[in-house]
Amino acid sequence: MQTTVAREGVHPWQFGLVLLAVITPLIPLLSWTDEGYVGLFPVLATVGLTAVPLLLHARPQAFGRCAGLVAAPLLVWSFVGAMIGMFLFLPSALQLLLAAGADPRRRPTAAGAMAGAGLALSAVVLARFWSE
């Protein structure tokens, strides 16, 4: 008799939080290119770094570690690069940290709160951007 082992990937909430961390700062930053913003290379390099956990979607433990490891330098970079608009990656660093723990299969109550907080961060950033 053969048994099949089901591979357990990351939960869609975790994957979605990382996608939000990648997409949310892109919207304001790319719209600034029409206004003469010239820092496109640092933006694309930062987005590439932010998207690295997405490559580990099949390995939940590595996904969580990678999200935490990417969030740490991203947090520092959002302050250091503030003069060129990298402050918009501060919510992304927080969303990466939230994504590392937003697995409802392990922590049902906390995961919902983490997913909601990450979604609210994106909503606040985009609402602030569109209100200007």
Mean pLDDT over the full residue set: 88
Number of strands: 0
Strand content: under 5%
Give the N-terminus to C-terminus distance in angstroms. 64 Å
The parts where pLDDT drops under 50 for at least 5 residues are none
Sheet bearing the most strands, described? Answer: none
Q: How large is the radius of gyration?
A: 16 Å
Q: What's the helical proportion of residues?
A: 55-70%
- Strand-and-helix sequence, N→C? HHHHHH
* Overall outline: globular
Number of helices: 6
Tell me the structural class: mainly alpha
Give an overview of the whole structure:
This protein has 132 residues and is mainly alpha-helical. The chain is 65% helix and 0% strand. The protein is built from 6 helices and no strands. The chain has helices spanning 12-23, 26-31, 40-50, 60-80, 90-101, 108-131. The longest helix has 24 residues, at 108-131. The protein is globular. The chain starts with 11 loop residues before the first helix and ends with a helix. The mean pLDDT is 88.
What's the short version?
With 132 residues, the protein is mainly α. It contains 6 helices and no strands.
Describe how the helices and strands are arranged.
Layout: H1 12-23, H2 26-31, H3 40-50, H4 60-80, H5 90-101, H6 108-131
